[in-house]
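Hi support team,

I submitted a single chain yesterday and got back a structure, but I'm not sure I'm reading the token output correctly. Could someone confirm the output below corresponds to the sequence I sent? I've pasted both exactly as they appear in my results page.

Thanks,
R.
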Amino acid sequence: MKTTDTKKKIGILGGSFDPIHKGHLNIAESARKEFQLDEVWFIPAGHSPNKDETCMTSAAERAKMVQLAIEDYPYFRLSTLEIDSTQTSYTSVTLTKLNTMYPDTQFYFIMGADSLDYLESWHHPEIICENAILLVAVRGELGLAELKRKSKELQKMFRAEIHLILGGKTNISSTELRAGKGGMHAALLPEKVADYILKQGLYGYGEKRDSQAIKEKTG
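Hi R., thanks for writing in. Yes, this is the structure output for that exact sequence:
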């Protein structure tokens, strides 16, 4: 392991969180428990390199949804590091900043198996691997055997340290939630987030029109 017993262990979970859902919370909690992390920091993307910002919910609203989702979890924190920056939200840049700001902390970058499959195409993957231990949630199309093979390949390529998160499996998709597939309801969303979406009229939902439908689907 890159870490030592004297360093604080912080998990980093980034993403657009548009919206944050229970799958994000499950993965974060599984990572925290399985790797004895002191905290998990949720970092909503500011200027995403892969998404059209004009199609995204505002940074302030996405950060608010994250705050609502995690406020009952004592080990979870919201970081606005990327939102507050004018730079493109590259993971390599964020992790470099975090290591400079918190030199006595070992960071663990939490990611999905689908993302690990193309990590070599990310912005400076060698910097990501240098600045964090990778924790990979087992989900998506990659089977366990393929995931282990890919991990070994990246370990050789970037001297990466990679571990698998075995709990917290989920198939929830923010994209599908925005489109209304499966229903915008508390079976998939934290209740406070669902209430916020309705009150703010996000993703085409409105409090008067959709609140009853959501209640019916949560039973």
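A quick pointer for reading it: The two ends are 44 Å apart (CA to CA). Let us know if anything else looks off.

Best,
Support desk
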